[in-house]
Write a structure and sequence with these properties.
This protein is α+β, with helices and mostly antiparallel strands. It has 4 helices and 5 strands, in the order αααβββαββ.
Length: 172
């Protein structure tokens, strides 16, 4: 009981013994409740996105997310319906049949982070991209329909979307 009767740095000297006991009992409760976190806006948006992915109709199409980087020539991430973004592939576009939306508009990269419903198929070939020193699957584009110009985040870092930063962020 000596702990409650002598002065302690967390309690002012003028607190009664009963008040000190009460505070000692309440401290663990206060500590636990202060650790509670409110889901972030991004976390809520991601949950909603995952649910909408589960609800996507099956079909012969793909979902693409433009990932523009000034120094790299890949187009972005492409996934099949009902697949998560972690299963998406970073692709090089074959635009011989259809130009990418930003290229068709003459504004390269203006659609960074836009989401599209894509028509086309993977050719089975891989294409070398020298700036990243990587090989990426080739996607032959035959059509693109804008789904969302401000979709929910698929990268942990918002800096991943900066076209000037030379990183290749993986979706999560």
């Amino acid at each position: 009981m000596g702990f409650l009767t002598r002065q302690h740095p967390i309690f002012p000297a003028n607190l009664s013994r009963a008040m000190r006991k009460l505070l000692l009992c309440l401290l663990p409760i206060l500590a636990l409740t202060s650790c509670e976190t409110v889901p972030s806006q991004d976390a809520n948006a991601r949950r909603e996105m995952m649910e909408s992915i589960r609800q996507e109709p099956a079909g012969d199409y793909y979902i693409g997310r433009r990932y523009y980087k000034e120094d790299y020539k890949f187009w972005g991430w492409v996934r099949a319906p009902r697949q998560s973004w972690t299963q998406a592939k970073l692709v090089m576009l074959n635009e011989q049949q259809k130009l990418a939306p930003d290229r068709a508009a003459g504004t390269l990269g203006s659609d960074n982070n836009h989401e599209y419903r894509l028509s086309g198929q993977f050719s089975g070939d891989t294409v070398y991209e020298p700036a990243s020193n990587g090989f990426y699957p080739e996607f032959v584009l035959t059509g693109a329909e804008l789904l969302d110009d401000t979709p929910p985040p698929i990268y942990k870092s918002r800096g991943a979307l900066d076209p000037k930063i030379r990183i290749i962020a993986q979706p999560y």
